Amino acid sequence: MNACVRPELPVRPMTIADVPAVIGVEEIAYAYPWTEGIFRDCLRSGYHGYVQEDSRGVVAYAMITVAVGEAHLLNLAVAPRHQGGGRGRALLRYVCRQAVALGADIMFLEVRPSNVQAVALYLDEGFCEVGTRRGYYPAAIGREDALVMARTLV
Length: 154
Prior knowledge:
alpha+beta; Aminopeptidase; seven-stranded mixed beta sheet; 29% helix
């Protein structure tokens, strides 16, 4: 593990005030980032956002929704300078525990097959591929499919 990265940094609920910092990470982590409006709408709709900070600000975040016993991981990102040190894994485990506390017994997510690191993380954390959403993501040429993955939480 990279000695500069501390995955045990505390996680706290995301607020509307965090959205600009979250967007700063989102825009460097993804080629097709969510907009500020999407994050604001998620929070206003009662979705559960979480951020992890170091002394310089937000370094990772996640957004989930929970309904009728099912959680959906909508977004999880770690600032590139903090990737590879366990922060994404720690945050994923945290949101899975939060989903259980919110009444979920299964979590679903979509991930780009080209995001090899994320796919490996999800598989390693017990997620299984349960389907494919054709043309789900924008891509440089056309659209990219999404792998749909799920994991029992309890």
